[in-house]
Amino acid sequence: MNCKNITLVAALVVTMAFTGCSSQKTTDEQVSDATSVEVAVAQNGTVETNYVYSGKTAPVETADVFSTINVKVKKVNFDIGDVVNAGDILFEMDTESYATSLKVQQANYTAAKANVSTAQTALNTVNGASMQMQIENARVAMENAKLARDTVKIDFDNKSVLFTQGYIAQTEMDAVKDTYTKAETAYNQASQAYELTKGQLVEENTQKAQDALNAAQASANAAAAQMESIQKSIRDAKVKSPINGVVTENNVTAGTVLSSTAVPFVISNTSSVIVDVSVSEQIINSLANGQSVGVKIAAVSPDKLNGTIKTINPAANAKGTYDVDIEISNTSGAIKSGMFAEVSFDKEKGENTVVVTRDAVVSKNNEDYVFIEKDGVVTKTIVVMGIDDGETVQILKGVNVGDNVVVKGQTYINDGDSVEVVKDDSNAVESTETKGE
């Protein structure tokens, strides 16, 4: 009897347990009847498709800086990566030999000017009453020229010995030799003038005096030109940057002679950068100088930068494409030369138009449709799509601004289904996955 009672109680407990489970299951099924979805409000926006071409960034301006004189480098003031301004002295050359040559040339010029003065005086007095005065002047000019010649010859002889022994450079020796040659010429001219003054008629002397003056003036001009050339070399010894920018190459070392195969300095202006791309004939006629384009440089920003078409080559290159230069502002300096860039040219563009995410549109059985949610119920709506960039699509018909378009969970619902709108992405995905199982 007791055993039967125990068995009956146990059966009732089991029955109640199954009944409770059945009741709980029914409640869960009622809750899960509303499929969890995520919606987005349809808005007016812009959608576009592009032609994309790749290239690399380059400075908007580059300057190769050379020296006009070939002597040892005295000092280097900048190195790679340094910012320079136009006019900054990049490096300086040793001008000691030029300074010596300049002193010699200045003395030669002074002597040449004295010869000009003497020749002018001879010309002015050639028709005067006193030939003796003319002869005396010619003699003095000759003596002055001889004195100048002898003075320079002493320096020439001394420098010749030093040059033979290797103590002075070829440039300095050439300068001294040139000075001596000119002094010898000046002396010969003065000597000839003196002899002509003594032995020729006044008419002949006049012509000769004029010739002597011309020769003396030419000698003075040559001396002045040589002096200016040396002075220019001394000025050019301070090699300056022609542009604002950054040093990108430095092949100069103090105490050495510049290499004949390498550019001493390269200055790059990267305040703006250029991207050179080669575009096809399909789009070349749609481009214009000054046109804005999008440029993506992944190393700098995930977003597109604003670029402007700077130049368009109307002639095709060897590959049959057309070179187009895009300029991008780089005031921050973040864009470095040689970075990979992608330039986007508009193919199609829709502005102020209804757009939704591409995933919201279901394409099935030769029709495109979306689900629009209102008050917890979805309505299947046929749509006409326009421009499609793969992520966003233009809706020409079927969706209005402000509609709640299902963007997640749409593959698990049907027209007229009840839905539960969730905001958290992870919850929406989890709910749709559970419903799918």
Structure description:
This protein is of the alpha+beta class and 437 residues long. It has 4 domains: 30-47 and 351-436, conserved putative lor/sdh protein from methanococcus maripaludis s2 fold; 49-58 and 265-349, Elongation Factor Tu (Ef-tu), domain 3 (Beta Barrel), CATH 2.40.30; 67-94 and 239-263, RNA polymerase II/Efflux pump adaptor protein, barrel-sandwich hybrid domain (OB fold (Dihydrolipoamide Acetyltransferase, E2P)); 96-236, Four Helix Bundle (Hemerythrin (Met), subunit A). It contains 7 helices and 19 strands. It has helices at residues 2-32, 96-125, 131-164, 170-199, 202-236, 281-284, 425-436; strands at 35-41, 43-65, 73-76, 83-84, 89-93, 238-240, 245-250, 265-279, 292-296, 305-312, 322-329, 340-357, 362-364, 367-374, 377-382, 384-388, 392-397, 404-408, 419-421. The strands form 3 sheets. Strands 1, 13, 14, 15, 18 and 19 form a 6-stranded mixed beta sheet that branches. A hairpin with a 2-residue loop joins strand 13 (362-364) and strand 14 (367-374).
